[in-house]
Structure formats: structure tokens, C-alpha cells
Amino acid sequence: MNGVDLEELRTLIARHARRDTHATALDDVLVSSVDRSAPPAPSMSGVVMALIAQGSKRIALGSSVHEYGPGQYLVASVDLPVTGLFTKARPDEPALGFGLVLRPALIAELLLAAAPGDLPPASAAAPPGMVVSDAPAPLVDAVVRLLRLLDSPRDAAVLAPLVKREILWRLITGEQGATVRQLGLADSGLAHIARAVQWIREHYAQPFRVQDVAALSGMSASAFYRNFQAVTAMSPIQFQKQIRLQEARLLLATRPGDVTGVGLRVGYDSPSQFSREYRRQFGLPPSQDAVLLRGTTAGREPALV
Is residue 221 part of a domain? Predict the structure, then answer.
């Protein structure tokens, strides 16, 4: 990797990162600067590519742990419940990250534009929903050129979509291309699991049978269970529990005095079970955590950047 590109990437991210949001003036382009290693925080991953320019981050997904540092990128192909923390971040050397939201429609366009034989055939099996690789120099160069456009608003409207396509192409043809390519295939194993994930997220407070969600995904129960675990590193029921607890924590940030009501709203009939599982997940019972959460705003931005 070109060290000059990485140094310019750090400079650009530091210049444009804001404390209140990861968003930038470019659609789907995210940057962040974090100057301290905070306790692990639960969030949703987003469907993104995240590239670290400085510092390092650790992401726990189910039973899997992913770490990435300077010059490495992580791809999350499904919006997953994760717990993350920056392991190297301090005021004189903040952790700096870039992110690009991955849009399946744009990936599909590139797959259709590729000449026959340019890409390997798609696999029927669903790939892991989260993967890490070293970023090749052409990918870092494209990210740098995209961020330069934040300083050239006149050029950004025309050139930013072109550079985004280049970044996506680098991902499609790169080491983790199998994962990214499945995002653009409507009938891929990943697409089936993504539909199941979306259904569970929308109905997380309701009990369900795995075989019923498998049928909604167009898969047999055994194939669905196997592919779901491959993508999310969790069983469907474990995934639902993670979503319930994360939603409960978001609600407690605004309703700290209604622990029982929050538990019921996210699907727990038993207050004791809710308190027990909440404490196991976040380290404190919901009543105590609610006090700490008071006055905070829990964001919905991708956790990986």
C-alpha cells in the first residue's frame, strides 16, 4: 500500500469529520474521528464498507470477533447487531475511519456491465456477513480521490458517482468480492438471508418459528438455519434477542422510568427474564443502565466507521 495515500486519507478524514454525525456532503460517504477508547457499545453494523486510516477497531458479532486497523477494510453485507470499540484512539492520535454505504442496486448495475468471464460464477452458499481484508493500493487511492471531492463541491456532483462506482468495482473484484457480489444478486443466498434479517428486525417483538421464516425466505429449514448462522454468526433466535435488547436500550434512553413497559414493548412477557438478559448483554440491569443513558441520544449510524 502507498503510505502517501494513507497519510492523505488521514488528513482528509481529520479535516471533514464531525462530532455529531458520520455523514458528509457526499451521499452514502461517512467519516469519523474518535479520540478515546470508550467502553464497548452495541449498535447495528449497517450495510457498509469501512476502511481504517488510523487506530484500530474491534467488532463482536455473535461468537465472532473482527479486528481491523490502518489500511484494512471491513465489509458488512447485512445490517447486523454488533458490539464495537476502538482499541487504539487517543486525543493526540485519534482513530480515523471512512465508510461507504453499499447499495445493492449499484452493485447489480456493475455486475451487469461486466464482460462475460470477468467475474467468477456466483456461489449458491451464503458468505459470512462480515469480512476483513487488507486494502489494496488502488482501493485506497479511489477513497482518497472521493474524499478530495469534499473540498471541490462543483466537481462532486459529476465525479463522486463515478468514483463510488470505481470503489464498488474494486470491492467486487477484490479479495472479498464473493461477499460484495452477492449483495447485487436478487436470488443469492445472501439475499435470502437479508430478507429474513429484515423480517426479524421488523417483527422482533413477536415470537416466530424458524421454519416459518425459512419459508418466507424460500429455503428449507435446514438450509436456512445453516446459511443464517454463516451470515450472522448467530441462530435466528439469538439474532432476535440481540435486536430486542438493542431496541430496549434505545427506548430506555428516552423512557428511563418505564423499564417494565419497555420490556413488554420489545417482546418480554417476564420482567425478570428481561432484566436478566439485559444485564447479561450490557453489564447492568435496565433500571441502572437507564440512569446512565438519561440525556444521551442513541444513534442509528453504522457502527463500523
Answer: no
Question: pLDDT for 271-294, tens place per residue?
Answer: 999 999 999 988 889 988 888 776
Nearest to 178 by CA among 115, 242, 125: 125
Cα–Cα distance between 230 and 84 in angstroms, integer?
A: 20
Q: The whole model's pTM is what? A: 0.87
Domain containing residue 139: CATH number: 2.60.120.10
Q: Does 120 reside within a domain? A: yes
* Rg of the chain, C-alpha, whole Å: 20
Grid cell digits, residue 19? 462530532
Indicate if the alpha-carbon torsion angle 260, 261, 267, 269 is positive or negative.
Answer: positive
In a domain, 86, yes or no: yes
Asked if residue 65 lies in contact with residue 83, where contact means CB atoms within 8 angstroms, the answer is no
**DSSP class of 149:** G
Number of domains in the chain: 1
